[in-house]
Amino acid sequence: MKGIWTTTTSMMGVLAFCQTLLHTVFPPELRFASLKFFQRHLKWFSSYCYYDITEIDGVNTNELYNAVQLYLSSSASITGTHVSLTRGLNSSAFTFGVSNNDRLVDTYNGTIVEWEHVVTQRQSQTFSWRPLPEEKRGFTLRVKKKNRQVVLDSYLDFVMEKANEIRRKNQDRLLYTNSRGGSSDSRGHPWESVPFKHPSTFDTLAMDPVKKSEIMADLLDFANGESFYRRTGRAWKRGYLLYGPPGTGKSSMIAAMANYLGYDIYDLELTEVNTNSELRKLLMKTSSKSIIVIEDIDCSINFSNRKKSANSGARKYNHDSASPAPPGTNGEDGGSTITLSGLLNFTDGLWSCCGSERIFVFTTNHIEKLDPALLRSGRMDMHINMSYCSFPAFKILLKNYMGYEETDLVLEELEEVIDEAEMTPADISEVLIKNRRDKSKAVQELLEAMKMRAEKTRAKKLLESNRNEIQDKEQEQEKMTLDIPKEGFDQLEESCNKDDEKIR
């Protein structure tokens, strides 16, 4: 036994001496180069090929990386012994994925592929034109060389399609907002997100059913129109303008669109964007299958109608009626320098094509204040008037809030006054919520409120009509006065002077 220990100790000493000699004779640079050389030549004899899919591709997030991550976290065909489990906020379902620097095996049409999630610490850089995440992430796909055409021709497309299906079925939508001052998070993203749980759907949306069906059909045609947009050479995007008085359901419409298509929402706050360049970067960081929203566009930045502004400045008596531009719109005092041209390029320029399947939605309370360049087809393709509550929309509200059926005689009285009342769905909803425990009381109170509003509306219209008549008469008198020639004024003045002399 003693001899065995002596021999083992001697061998360990020899190995340590050889290792020291090796480090002395061969420097680290030479050893590293030799190792790379042997690895490169060994790959020629290997039966496998490898494909790297990094998280960031240049300045954009690699959509294939996101698709693989989503596919591996939801596919039932994945096998592995070490996976990471996650559970989203307010979610009852668990999802699994590939742990850092671990592997999972997938099978596709008899072909076995192996996925490895490679996560390394990024080396510190002295200078970077944009912030980079601390970790460098990516997937490495290993497959036998004889099966690589299967992977390139169909398997990766299959992964993308499955990821899109999973994303559509996923109920946890995300609501994004741009960070203040264009700052980015630790992973270099300028958008902050929260789970989107808005319950609004087209079934609950208070709107004329005919108009609602048209919007739903248009949205469905857009979502299924990839081949059409590609064939016609158009960017796969569409614009919607929602306009109308406050409280008519513009935000609920946006939520219903997102829930109907399964898209995320990017709520763009223009007052937090400083330059056109920053606006383009925000667009580049949005994902496909998303709705980009700019609410109250007529209030956030001064994009008023240039023709009306010019006419207002040229007229003598309407000079003071033009509203002044909001502070900071011209870059003064360090404010925003976003221009109308920058916003137009954002929605319909070359940069708007950096991505696909995007919907732009603008909302405004005063469509007449917006510049026509924002409203033309190609930017805002569909204009949706969110008007006052109509009788078909009112019946939807009664059904949603009260479970009310249209069998009571009172509904006929409501139908007679609802158009003249000009009440918004928000006004009606408030009455229904307040009296949700008593159906008859809710309907009676609504009937009284509508009759009162209808009387006020009629009185207001009568007052405006009288005012317009007075203005028309004043303009006619002014026109008649201006039509009298100058010679007539001279003769009248001479006659008056003669009469004065006679009297004297």
Automatic annotation (TrEMBL):
Q: Could you tell me which residues belong to the region Disordered?
A: 310-334, 460-504
The AAA+ ATPase domain, residue ranges = 236-390
A biological process (GO) of this protein is: response to stress
**GO function terms (MF aspect):** ATP binding; ATP hydrolysis activity
Instruction: Give the SUPFAM superfamilies listed for this entry.
Output: P-loop containing nucleoside triphosphate hydrolases
Q: Does the keyword Hydrolase apply?
A: yes
Query: What are the names of the required cofactors?
Result: Mg(2+)
Using the record, list the residue span of the signal peptide; answer none if the entry has no such feature: 1-16
Q: Which reaction does it catalyse?
A: ATP + H2O = ADP + phosphate + H(+)
Keyword Transferase appears in the UniProt entry: no
Q: Give one Pfam family, short name only.
A: AAA_assoc
Q: Which UniProt keywords apply?
A: Hydrolase, Magnesium, Signal
InterPro entries noted in UniProt:
AAA+_ATPase, AAA_N_dom, At3g28540-like_C, ATPase_AAA_core, Mitochondrial_chaperone_BCS1, P-loop_NTPase
Which family does the entry's similarity section mention?
Belongs to the AAA ATPase family. BCS1 subfamily.
What name has this protein been given in UniProt?
A: AAA-ATPase At5g57480-like
